């Protein structure tokens, strides 16, 4: 598994996409797909809200649920801590929905939506990062109840349960998501008060702007998840409908349809980011589940399995449980492979174009943004490095410069430390080589989060992989 073993990389610019193949993959879809991640303070009502929406519009993917259950003993399966947590709810059990699914799907008039639920508890931040790194759109759920919104938005960091609204919004933005829907939830608890809704918006809007969200990228939706108000249809409670209609605010589904997912990298060399090693009857012993983040994956073709660098043949590609001829960037798929050791398939595996393979590195340059640090980051600092589905111990081996966060201009070369809320250029070294890319080439393979002892220190993007 050494980086030296990987074949020389052809420059990505030399890649010529096969138009017929791109068209074939595009033809497998009747709707554009988007990935939605739901974040917010614990108990803000994320699961309830999404549970209602799914129940109304969705398909709890029975096949996926069944598969997940069978995979309990399968090799390399991470616990999908961020998985949709409906199974925790007795009322859902009564309804007989099998819900230990990692992903759920629902259809809006415009999109096929893949939903990822991110638990609000502090311990789940790493899984939230995995979820968010795949997301196009985030729904930030805040609790409108008096005192609860304030608690979720509190600036205190470090105490479990405190102020995750801020940390989550920061992470979402830093992980490249620029489309945000703020669902102001539990409106029933505040008598559907428009003043309360406006108060929350007035507090949060400037702060979101400071985080780098554009005004046009943020939508505000007052809802009651529990009562199903303003989720998939206009508000019905009299006290709510009165003003909601007049202000022209969308309901949640309209807000989702008004988002603009980033362009898909269909014209780039293939990259499939695996979030789990898996196996099933149709897929066979050697299979992975994950997201195509670049190019097209076609059944019957050869792919390179990284970082082990073994060639394999794609036996079958499944989308939402149905076999397809090809999948494209943006699609979530399960892939059955032949010719590869199943033990080499796990979260963090990347399937790629054998001629234009993914980079495999244990050292890279990152541009980071520190969060509310208690103590500054020093050169040599030991950190946990999270990158797509991987997390491993590493070190900040070089601090190259502190930067102006807006312009990127160098403020200080070779600083001794990086303080809270600073931007910096650094070199990170990790324990073993993993699949990664420059953020500029493949966003989802180039996002890094640095954590320590349960808190997020910094988020960043990979700016260089060679000679750093
Ligand atoms: P999560 O931790 O963000 O997933 O929150 P949950 O969905 O588990 O909800 C936390 C608590 O808030 C539960 O007791 C829910 O019943 C309650 N809750 C969720 N949504 C609403 C709502 O719209 N109105 C009211 N009154 N309670 C809600």
Structural notes for this entry:
The structure is a single chain. The protein is of the alpha+beta class and 468 residues long. The protein is 19% helix and 35% strand. It is built from ten helices and 25 strands. It has helices at residues 19-26, 46-57, 62-70, 90-95, 125-132, 148-152, 164-174, 194-210, 238-246, 252-257, and strands at residues 32-40, 58-59, 104-107, 111-117, 137-143, 179-185, 218-222, 271-280, 284-294, 296-298, 302-306, 310-319, 322-324, 326-328, 332-338, 350-352, 359-370, 377-378, 382-387, 390-403, 410-413, 417-418, 423-436, 447-452, 455-464. The strands form five sheets. A seven-stranded mixed sheet has the order 2-3-4-1-5-6-7, with helices on both faces. Strands 8-9-15-12-11-16 form a six-stranded antiparallel beta barrel. It has a six-stranded antiparallel beta barrel with strand order 17-23-20-19-24-25. Strand 11 (302-306) and strand 12 form a beta hairpin. The radius of gyration is 22 Å and the shape is globular. One of its GO terms (molecular function) is GTP binding. One of its GO terms (cellular component) is cytoplasm.
């Amino acid at each position: 598994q050494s980086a030296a073993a990987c074949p020389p990389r052809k420059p990505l610019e030399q890649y010529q996409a096969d138009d017929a193949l791109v068209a074939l993959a595009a033809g497998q879809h009747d709707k554009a797909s988007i990935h939605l991640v739901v974040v917010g303070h614990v108990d803000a009502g994320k699961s309830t809200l999404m549970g209602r929406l799914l129940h109304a519009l969705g398909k709890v993917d029975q096949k996926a649920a069944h598969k997940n259950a069978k995979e309990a003993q399968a090799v390399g399966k991470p616990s999908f801590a961020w998985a949709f947590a409906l199974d925790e709810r007795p009322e859902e059990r009564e309804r007989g929905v099998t819900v230990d699914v990692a992903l759920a799907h629902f259809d809006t008039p415009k999109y096929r939506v893949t939903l990822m639920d991110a638990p609000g508890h502090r311990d789940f931040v790493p899984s939230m990062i995995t979820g968010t790194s795949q997301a196009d759109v985030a729904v930030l759920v805040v609790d409108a109840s008096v005192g609860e919104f304030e608690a979720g938005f509190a600036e205190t960091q470090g105490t479990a349960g405190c102020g995750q609204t801020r940390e989550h919004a920061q992470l979402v933005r830093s992980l490249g998501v620029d489309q945000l829907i703020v669902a102001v939830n539990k409106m029933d608890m505040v008598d559907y008060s428009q003043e309360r809704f406006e108060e929350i918006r007035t507090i949060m809007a400037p702060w979101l702007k400071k985080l780098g969200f554009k005004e046009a990228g943020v939508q505000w939706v007052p809802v009651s998840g529990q009562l199903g108000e303003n989720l998939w249809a206009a508000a019905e409670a009299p006290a709510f409908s009165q003003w909601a209609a007049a202000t022209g605010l969308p309901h949640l589904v309209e807000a989702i349809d008004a988002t603009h997912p980033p362009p898909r990298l269909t014209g780039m060399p293939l990259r499939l980011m695996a979030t789990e090693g898996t196996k099933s009857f149709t897929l066979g012993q050697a299979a992975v589940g994950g997201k195509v983040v670049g190019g097209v994956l076609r059944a019957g073709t050869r792919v390179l399995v990284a970082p082990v660098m073994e060639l394999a043949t794609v036996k079958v590609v499944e989308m939402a449980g149905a076999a397809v001829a090809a999948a494209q960037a943006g699609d979530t798929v399960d892939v059955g492979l032949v010719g590869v050791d199943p033990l080499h398939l796990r979260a963090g595996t990347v399937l790629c174009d054998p001629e234009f393979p993914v980079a495999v590195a244990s050292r890279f340059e990152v541009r980071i943004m520190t969060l509310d640090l208690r103590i500054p980051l020093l050169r040599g600092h030991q950190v946990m490095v999270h990158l797509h589905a991987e997390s491993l111990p590493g070190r900040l081996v070089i601090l190259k410069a502190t930067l102006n966060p807006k312009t990127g201009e160098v403020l200080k070369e070779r600083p001794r430390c990086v303080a809270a809320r600073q931007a910096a250029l650094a070199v990170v070294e990790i324990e073993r080589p993993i699949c990664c890319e420059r953020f500029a080439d493949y966003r989802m393979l180039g996002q890094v989060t640095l954590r320590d002892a349960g808190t997020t220190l910094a988020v960043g993007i990979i700016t260089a992989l060679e000679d750093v």
